[in-house]
Amino acid sequence: MKTNIQEGIILIPDFSGFTEFVFSTKLYTGEYIVRQLLSTLIDVNDQYFKISEIEGDAILFYRYDKKPSYQNISAMLLKMRSAFNKKIDELTKSLGTAIDLSLKFIVHYGTFSQYKIGNFRKLYGKTIVEAHQLLKNGFAEHPSYALFSNSFLESTRKREVHPKNEQLYLPEVGVIHYFENMNQPVF
């Protein structure tokens, strides 16, 4: 049996406030808003990451990469968040309704495999499970953040200097950066 095991980055953008949003928004309106927001994240990605799955309010992105760049990923997250917030503003104005959603990101690194079932490609491995577990953390103090796991930071540390303004260092998990304090990239 041939397996496709490689090292890579797992990126999961996830909406904070999604459950409350679903329960407080009409079905058609909510589906339209979520579709627009997910499409925005996919468009901004510009095929840098491949999509494994879209589930509700989250996208499971991945990229095989033996030398990931902290700077490139940070810039991508800021770009995604900016586009997401801009789309929320546009939708709020055009629909005349408040949209109380924010964006959080999980950035993880490790070894995983991929298999195919019919027309679907699925990722498999401990790294995938760990990334999903990081989504359900109780560490974040604010809803809009990026959690860079220790494994991702270690994969980039030898080549890049990380910012010193790390907001919340969690020795067992990684670092949480709150978007309000991250430097804005120049595009």
UniProtKB/TrEMBL annotation:
Pfam families per UniProt: DUF2652
InterPro entries found in the cross-reference section: Uncharacterised_Rv2561 (IPR020503)
Domain of life: Bacteria
Protein name per Swiss-Prot or TrEMBL: DUF2652 domain-containing protein
Species whose genome carries this gene: Chryseobacterium pennipullorum
